[in-house]
Protein 1
Amino acid sequence: MTTHELPVAEAKTNPNPPRHQPDSPPPTGRPGGPDWWLMMKAFLTQGKQIASCAPSSAAMARKMIDGIDWDAAKCIVELGAGTGPITAQLVKRLKPHTRALVIELDPTLCARLQDRFRGVPNLDVVHGDATQFDKYLAERGLPEVDHVLSGLPLPSFPKELRNAVLGTSARALSARGTFRQLTVMPLVYYKMYARYFDDVKFRFVPWNLPPGGVYMCRGFRGTVASVK
């Protein structure tokens, strides 16, 4: 695994920038406290940028990657990885020809990810902004993505920020790629995702705290910026 110091986005795409200086690396080493405590602190201080107050269950993480053709997948991007429950499932299934790019903006959570997945082949943990992941792909010579796995609370984002994340995903995904969105509010935002995608399916996951599910989305509808 390689880790990289990358600049955070400008304030207009990041309403709550990290507290450390942008030109300094995120904290190194294993930050203190169990995963649930790190997630709870992040949720309480950055609620609009954190999807849940607790890490996703193993059942939720498995559902997020269910149905991926691992023999065909060449590149997978995870946005807002938190403490890494979905990343852990990715690591179990990655093939030698598949690259995984894991992006986390929170410096403490990113440090936990870097520590946990240090040395994993074909997996990069990036301290950076989800709206810029196409740039991170280009830096690694990766032309397109087969699957985007989002743990970001997109419905809570301002429309401009949400469209920036989805617009980057639309540009990066292959023609048959999927955008997969974690949620802990089952079906509540189905209509919102249907405004962005031609094909939206929801898979319920009861074994999670709180119960939630995954939106499986394909085929962006026209220009993301035009979605109301």
Protein 2
Amino acid sequence: MLSTIFASALLALTASPIPVRSQADIHNVTGLAGTWSSGSGAVQTGAGFANPVNFSFTYPKNTGISWSFTDTGFFEQAEYQFRSNGSEPSCITGVVLFQHGTYQFLDNGSIIATPFAPDGRIQVQDPCAAQSNTITQFNTSVLFSSWRIFQDPTRGPKLQLYRFDGAPLTPQFLVALPPNMLPTQVLTPNNQSAAVAKLRKLTFIVLGTVAGGAIGALMLVL
């Protein structure tokens, strides 16, 4: 159902992409380029968060989200979230995920981020699951319906992203310019076939376990 909704929304948005640099001054106090991080800034993209080559994460001290963008059309996404279970309060699920790839502006101001399929990683820690700690490949395009950058009087530029249904994500603040990112290229090219196979098994995790956190907080579109 969610895939159908997204497909319909994407069809309505398909248009000639606008060059990245032309978006800098339309409705913002600064350009999109840089590393942005929510809350205390504990979660940030770059080498200190994920290593897709050896399937590993370095856990931050606090939860949060982080997005990085370049002026040349590349992005990186990092997330560390907890998800509660209303029926089983002790079964709190922890999720960390990483993706990077390319992004484009559409002519209505929305953003579509398309990851490098082999490189995405997601780790789910669920003390109540048969496998309490799993890490696998992850590949999910992200559609932001709109975005704004405001000037916070205390912390400076503040990025507000809106997911495909218009709901706002957690605000993020500029923490690095130029952005802190892994190399903007496919880092694990030999994992393409394995990624496709594992992602088929991830459908329920993405729609169920990650839906409340990743879709709600990061506007992941499936």
